[in-house]
Amino acid sequence: MAVKLRLRRMGKKKQPIYKIVAADARSPRDGRFLEMLGLYNPLTNPHTVDVKEDRVIYWLNNGAQPTHTVKSLLRQKGITLKNELTKRGVAEDRIESELADWNKLKEASRSRKTQKKKISRKAKAKVEASDDSAKAETVSQDNSEKQNEAEAEKSTAEVKGAASDEKESKKE
Which residue range is the domain that position 66 belongs to? Predict the structure, then answer.
């Protein structure tokens, strides 16, 4: 019997909630299943995934094949990472440290994404406009400094030229 880990649709019309189940591949989507492994609610922000981790690992080790969506959900929860590390024979403390590092990276990524989303288009336009004006000011300051340097060089050249003219007139 081929076992699949898949979603079983529940809930009202236009308000789906899914059960993550282990089911025979031949049974229909909302038909018989062997065991309920968790819940997935896509309507919450961010979506909610509650999974019985030990039972999912049990089914995966016994040959159950997750569907693409379930595989994605398990990857988001870190269950596939844990399963891969246990298959490799990594020690439990090392697995826990790897999962902790993975969670830190995921949290940092999530916080960066929320910070990017919070800035509206108008605010971005204002920031870009202020950046452009700041760049324009620095460019104009640089240009004015260059002009001042050029004028200073001209005046020193004129002074040197006048001094050399005096020397030539004295020689004659």
Answer: 3-77
